[in-house]
Specification:
Chain lengths: 469, 271
């Protein structure tokens, strides 16, 4: 099982641990160098986001103690003193590692089901490794990551897993879009200058709002925030004038009383606003007097309402999971067939080398006896024998790849070596790929290999069938 | 050939309506593109059917209840496709595809064949008069469909029901824009049709017959249009009021047709 993933995620580790182990691109590159230079892995990719840090490894031999190894490696890379609890870490190997990556890219493993960022984050991690020097990505992880991105794309295209609003700010934008359509050219006011206001501003600015005004009791803070998002600042005393122009109002102050009252709005719009007015109250306690929602043409939503939008989206997304799982299973099986078929390469290479040796020797002997033939005909004989050899070997080559791709054991390779009298694997090539085993999943740290922590060892049991014929 | 093509168009409209209803019932976040392509295919068959009628009878399908309904349904389809080209309002077809299918089916049941032999009906300006009137009615039909979706979406938003309809229906501003454009096209068209009809009557009959059922219906529709446009003017909530007025207006026009037809329309070539 030389494909291994070891890491932490929001499923296993609290935020402070994830923060501590998160890697910048520079640190990821250093980790990749450390992994390959020390010979821990032939190929490696580091995926690090705010919700996970994972090492994807393709190793010479099966890692016997992947979890302690990963825990120690990631802790060292983070420069932490003392060991982290190994319970924060998990390991998947073989087929399970493949499936894990496909689930991650398809955002089935994300904190918010169906979130869109993870595909880009995994792609960036893969590209970082591809462009590193020395390059830590070889044929196996390249194929694995390319396949996973393809599967992720298919999941997004063929299911509604990425559709709808799944966070409070995106729910607010979804509500605004259902009222105004495009938000381009609209006028928005954000009341408050805290973290939630910044989030609201970020979402609104991304939608191409025409004018963004930040109103806050402390105007300096409002000015600073407005400058970040290309808006302008105002004091809360200017609110009535701002409300007369606004189409979207987001409030997120920490005031213990209502910042926006019905009386205030009725003073600005005595019969209600002529065009719809959206007010999004993301403060706790609420900033907007609830009766404001009764004013004609005013759409008032608080955090609970937006949570309802989010829940609706997540429920819809959950109903798509089964379809996504099928796409992932198909992708995993395709990859696994390819991966397993690689174990037939040494045998195929030996078979073809042997056949070519025979062909060349026999052709030379025949041509010696046919010395009278012109050069053109001698060349034809060469071509003929090569074509014959290729045609004869085509079926066994294809069948060998197919057989090891489909079957969990490799008896057929031994049979091929026996039938064609091929030399042993180690006599053929030093860089023959390792055959994968069928299983996967978390390795049992209490197993026999536990006595030799933090070392790489061969897996006699699962690789035994690959031995000499 | 005419009937075959119109029957094919009807089948395609019904299929599109069924597919849209299924997508809505299935909780999809947006109307799929497929059924709209089926509507376009239906519209192509419909156009071919009307062309075949014109070739077969040597007159446009504008006279008689069956041909009139077929043409009216076609114009609503044209309005729908035009609306989809300028706005992301696919769910409009959820209302309009069944309406088109019902009108075309009614036309086929009544019989798509000329009902009279008035030579004056073949004059080009007469065709213009009838087509303009149909454009007016079609505009009101589309405005009412957009208005209906607007009212429903408005309720979802006000009552905080973020379910199937909330996800599926277009934004309020989109529906308002479609409704407004349909009225802006429909009202002048109907006004022109009425003026042309009055001119024709005065020119050839030398007397205005205002008690004719089609005149009564057209004038009643014109006043409904005025009412709908007035409802959209100024003040808080004018968009919603306008949407509601479009729905009520279209219902009134249909009711007016039934009343006129039952009480005055016997033997009329148009109604």
């Amino acid at each position: 099982m030389p494909i291994t993933v070891v890491g932490i995620s929001h499923h296993t580790a609290p935020l402070e641990v994830r923060e501590a182990l998160a890697m910048s691109p520079e640190r990821s590159l250093a980790a990749l160098r450390a992994l390959t230079d020390a010979g821990h892995a032939r190929e490696a990719v580091v995926v690090s986001t705010c919700n996970r840090t994972e090492l994807y490894l393709e190793t010479e031999r099966v890692l016997t103690e992947p979890t302690p190894f990963g825990a120690r490696f990631l802790t060292e890379q983070a420069g932490l003193l003392g060991a982290l609890d190994a319970g924060f870490f998990y390991t998947r190997q073989g087929r399970d590692a493949v499936e894990h990556l496909f689930r991650v890219v398809s955002s089935l493993d994300s904190m918010i089901l169906g979130e869109a960022q993870i595909q880009g984050q995994v792609k960036a991690a893969y590209e970082l490794a591809v462009h590193a020097d020395p390059r830590p990505v070889g044929p196996v992880l390249a194929r694995l990551f390319e396949s996973s991105l393809g599967v992720g794309g298919r999941v997004r295209h063929d299911t509604a897993l990425g559709k709808g609003a799944a966070s409070i700010p995106s729910a607010a934008v979804a509500l605004a879009r259902k009222i105004f359509g495009s938000l381009r050219g609209r006028h928005a006011v954000v009341i408050g200058a805290g973290e939630m206001s910044a989030l609201a501003l970020e979402c609104l600015a991304a939608e191409g709002i025409a004018s963004l005004v930040v109103a806050n009791r402390t105007e300096a803070r409002a000015r600073e925030l407005a400058a970040r998002f290309g808006g302008r600042s105002a004091s809360v005393e200017e609110l009535p004038a701002l409300l007369a122009q606004a189409e979207i109002v987001a409030t997120a102050t920490s005031a213990p009383h209502h910042v926006l009252t019905r009386a205030m709005l009725e003073e600005v719009h005595p019969d209600g606003p002529r065009k719809p007015l959206l007010i999004v109250d993301i403060a706790l306690p609420r900033d907007v007097e609830p009766t404001v929602g009764a004013i004609p043409n005013v759409f008032l939503y608080d955090i609970d309402d937006m949570q309802q939008v989010v829940e609706g989206t997540l429920e819809k997304r959950r109903s798509e999971v089964a379809v996504a799982e099928r796409i992932i299973a198909d992708g995993r099986d395709d990859f696994w067939r390819w991966y397993r078929s690689r174990s037939a390469v040494p045998v195929i290479r030996a078979l073809r080398t042997q056949a070519e040796d025979i062909r060349r020797a026999e052709t030379e002997r025949a041509l010696r006896a046919l010395a009278h033939l012109p050069e053109e005909d001698r060349a034809r004989v060469e071509v003929l024998t090569r074509q014959l050899m290729n045609k004869v070997l085509h079926a066994p080559t294809a069948r060998l790849k197919e057989a090891v791709g489909e079957q969990p054991d490799a008896d057929v390779l031994e049979a091929a070596r026996y039938l064609f009298d091929l030399p042993d694997e180690d006599q053929v090539s030093d860089d023959a790929p390792h055959p994968p085993a069928a299983g996967g999943g978390e390795r049992d740290p209490s197993g026999p290999a536990a006595a030799a922590p933090d070392r790489l060892a061969s897996d006699g049991g699962e690789q035994g069938s690959q031995g000499a014929a | 050939m005419t009937l075959l093509l119109l029957a094919a168009a009807l089948t395609l409209y019904l299929a599109a309506a069924g597919l849209l209803a299924a997508s809505f019932a299935g909780g999809r976040a947006a109307a799929p593109r497929g059924p709209l392509l089926v509507v376009v295919a239906g519209l192509a068959a419909h156009a071919a059917g009307l062309a075949a009628f014109t070739l077969q009878w040597n007159e446009p399908p504008l006279v008689g209840l069956g041909p009139s309904l077929a043409t009216f349904a076609f114009l609503i389809g044209v309005f729908l496709v035009a609306a989809l080209l300028v706005a992301e309002a696919r769910p409009l077809a959820l209302v309009l595809a069944p309406l088109i299918a019902v009108l075309l089916a009614a036309g086929l049941v009544v019989g798509v064949a000329p009902s009279g032999d008035a030579p004056a009906f073949q004059a080009p300006w007469f065709s213009l008069h009838v087509v303009l009137a149909f454009v007016g009615y079609a505009g009101l039909a589309v405005a009412s469909a957009a208005g209906l979706l607007y009212v429903l979406q408005f309720r979802q938003l006000r009552d905080k029901h973020f379910g199937r309809a909330f996800r599926y229906f277009p934004p309020l501003s989109t529906l308002d824009g479609v409704g407004r454009r349909a009225l802006v096209i429909g009202f002048p068209a109907l006004t022109a049709a009425i003026l042309l009809g009055a001119g024709w009557t005065l020119r050839f009959r030398e007397v205005a017959v205002i008690s004719e059922p089609k005149v009564v219906w057209a004038v009643a529709t014109w006043f409904v249009f005025v009412g709908v446009l007035m409802a959209r003017r100024g003040g808080a909530g004018s968009d919603r009021r306008g949407a509601l007025a479009s729905v009520i207006g279209f219902v009134l026009v249909v009711l007016a047709y039934l009343v006129v037809r039952l009480t005055m329309g016997t033997g009329s070539t148009f109604l």
